[in-house]
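Changelog-linked ticket: 3,4-dihydroxyphenylalanine example.
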Amino acid sequence: MIDEIRAARDEALAAVRQADSLESVIALDPQLLGKKGRLAQLKTQLGKLDTIDEKKVAGQAVNEALQAVAAAFAARRAELGDAALAAQVRAERLDLTEYVGKPTRGHAHLVTQAWERLEDVFIGMGFQVAEGPEVETDWHNFEALNMPIGHPARGEWDTLFVDHAAPGDEPGRTVLRTHTSPVQIRTMLEQEPPIYIVAPGRVFRRDTPDATHMPVFHQIEGLVIDRDITMADLAGTIEAFTKAFFGSEFSSRLRPSFFPFTEPSAEFDIQRPDGSWLELGGCGMVHPNVLEAGGLDPEQWSGFAFGFGIDRMAVMRHQIADIRDMFVDDIRFIEQF
Ligand code: DAH
């Protein structure tokens, strides 16, 4: 009997070892461990043995054999199960090698980056950020800025008129704003002085795109209104901005100029470390007519304003040869930054 049990056990263990797939090992379960299996059959024959001792020894041997087979069966099933899962994962795997190593996040547009850096620097200097609409009334864009209808300076702006009559206004007096300066008027009408704001935004002119011009571009406007503001405050602010934005090796100067909305007016230039000068934008003391249009008494309040292009900042920073490249969304260009 003991020999038969051992033979049945060894046969069962060999069968488990030889099973080479999950299905085949599972199929062995009933014949090895089920009621009809050889070991189970031997167990039913224990009663035929003569002595109690023989029954005890044989019974123990059968139980040990069943346990050994069950353990081997479970181990082999787990092993083959793992292998089957690994094979399935291998078969269903997506080949992502093309994407490995490439950045998954993009970056802000170069103009947005310049815009945000400008805001950061001016906020650091105590300014707040203001905004106004891109579609403006003729009054905000020109008249309130001391350019009444028929003023020769209007001819310098290649204005895009919008086919729309604003409520209470005549047709043909709605424009795509030609500069961010109308935000000066809106801010004065909306908030009490002291005013210290910058207004970055998109502006529009009827211009044919070329390497240095776009019909849609960006400006940042500055406006300070307080008591006893002088031209020295303007020059000091421009100088502080120049050093904060470009670096301490840069400096600035004001050059006399003309704008209808400032008196006196100036252009401001920055000097690069190599000594060369670059014209940046316009500025001046806010004209009394402009203060009045903004609802302020020129006897009580004075201020300065400035405005310059943002796109040019991005072009300078990244040494871009053609401004149009920034707006065509060619991935080969964009990926360089
Ligand atoms: N608005 C002017 C332009 O678009 C720029 C400018 C000049 C803005 C002088 C100002 C200023 O605030 O004081 O060309």
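Closing comment: Example verified and attached. The mean pLDDT is 91. The chain has eleven helices and ten strands.
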